[in-house]
Amino acid sequence: MSNKPVHVAIAILYRDGKFLLQLRDNIPGIIYPGCWGFFGGHMEPDETPEVAVKRELLEEIGYAPPLMSKFGLYSDSSVVRHVFHGELDVELSQLVLGEGWDMDLLTPEEIGQGEGYSRKAGEMRPLGRPHQQILLDFIKADARK
Predict the structure, then answer these.
(1) How many distinct structural domains can be found in the chain?
(2) Is 1 inside any structural domain?
(3) Would you say 104 and 23 are in contact if contact means Cβ atoms under 8 Å apart?
(4) DSSP structural state of residue 127
(5) Is the distance from CB of 106 to CB of 128 less than 8 angstroms?
(6) Residues 6 or more apart from 13 whose CB is under 8 A from it?
(7) Per the domain annotation, does 77 fall within a domain?
(8) What digits encode the pLDDT tens for the residues 21-54?
(9) pLDDT tens for residues 72-106?
(10) Contact of 43 with 8, CB cutoff 8 Å
(11) CA dist 12 → 3, 9, 58, 122 (Å)
């Protein structure tokens, strides 16, 4: 077993001042079960973060923005998160959820509070802590400009 951290590529997608998030499946054993987080995932061997984030988005919601920019790199002992951002230029109804329990556009206020309402779950659900921090950093930097 390797102690090397895994590399993931994740996307901050935004539209009308809100941020697209995935409600992760509520399955014990997965990381952040039942929490809001980013779309994206593990990088394949020899895959660049730029290729990985687009592949993951196409797999998970059937859409990848034509233009994505690197926001930052967030690392801890178990994971290296390559974070990208881009504008969601289609309606939410045009996305096809291929992974996760739900998806929705959360407001900066909901992100600050650390939770958002899921219509499918029928309740407020928490944001995964690293996802919330990355979004708060993004909002503070206003990297959309």
Answers:
(1) 1
(2) no
(3) yes
(4) B
(5) no
(6) 19, 20, 39, 57, 65, 85, 86, 87, 88
(7) yes
(8) 999 999 888 889 999 999 999 999 999 999 999 9
(9) 999 999 999 999 999 999 999 999 999 999 999 99
(10) yes
(11) 28, 10, 14, 24
